[in-house]
Amino acid sequence: MSEVLLIHGACFGAWCWQAVIAELAQLGVGARALDLPGREARASLADQAEAIVQTLERPAILVGHSAGGFAITAAAQKSPLVTGLIYVAAYVPVAGMSLAQMRRAGPSQPMAGAFKVDRAAGLFGFDPTRTRALFFHDCEDASARLCRQAIAPMEQGLDEVALGLPRAAIICSADRAIPPEYQRHMAAGLEQREMACGHAPFLAQPRALAAMIAELAGKMRPLG
Questions:
Q1: How many separate domains does the chain show?
Q2: What is the mean pLDDT of residues 75-101?
């Protein structure tokens, strides 16, 4: 099986995957996580994709949470070492649309008013009074670990969306940040699994999440 590289969403970090990495190891799956550029600093979506590509040394399946769905898709277009993509409570990119545009196109806007935007610095974060309800209602409250995030990757789209690769999605059916029905819509045509948890399955149900990642990754074989 390919290596599994775990990519966080906006304002999170590699720290959020620690328990999942341990659970994957118990299943015999090698996995690691990466801090993307753009945490407390300006960065572009291309910068994030390049950071992923530069860390690849062998075939890898990329797992992206939330906004990380854009970063893994962009990276897949740059490296033949990417053998598959798994989206976890994530935005599945549509060609020509930015994440911000996709969010606004959703059936409801649960994150409306939760953003604290600093255009001068090129960063945004979440209102700390909103994060527990949005992200951590069913798990440890990790609000204090969230950081500010570069705005640019949220406003940049992709011309292509790696349709030639095996792709799958894990839907979080109790997600209060990205409506579950919108997750299913974005993942239409992909193999899907569902978890009865909120937006942070790596904290709420790391063992179940690891099992789903391992099962889906096992079906994604390197090409050639």
A1: 1
A2: 97
